[in-house]
Design brief:
ACC_epsilon, Acyl-CoA carboxylase subunit epsilon
């Protein structure tokens, strides 16, 4: 299966890039799209048990709390 049939083809509409320039542009665009896809997947997934449970562990810092801990 070639890339054009997958819908991932990049079409140059202006200029005359060298094969190296085209490869570099393709790599940058694919990396950016992969990163966006990963962000989308993370936003849609349910939080893990660790992520849900750790919320209860955090408490606001209080002035002088370090001194009370050592007593």
């Amino acid at each position: 299966m070639n890339e054009a049939s997958e819908g991932n083809a990049i079409r140059v509409v202006g200029g005359n890039p060298t094969p190296e320039e085209l490869a570099a542009a393709t790599a940058v665009l694919r990396a950016a799209l992969d990163e966006l896809a990963g962000m989308q997947r993370r936003a849609q997934r349910a939080p893990t048990t660790w992520e849900r449970e750790r919320r209860g562990l955090r408490q606001p810092l209080e002035r002088g709390a370090w001194n009370r801990w050592a007593r």
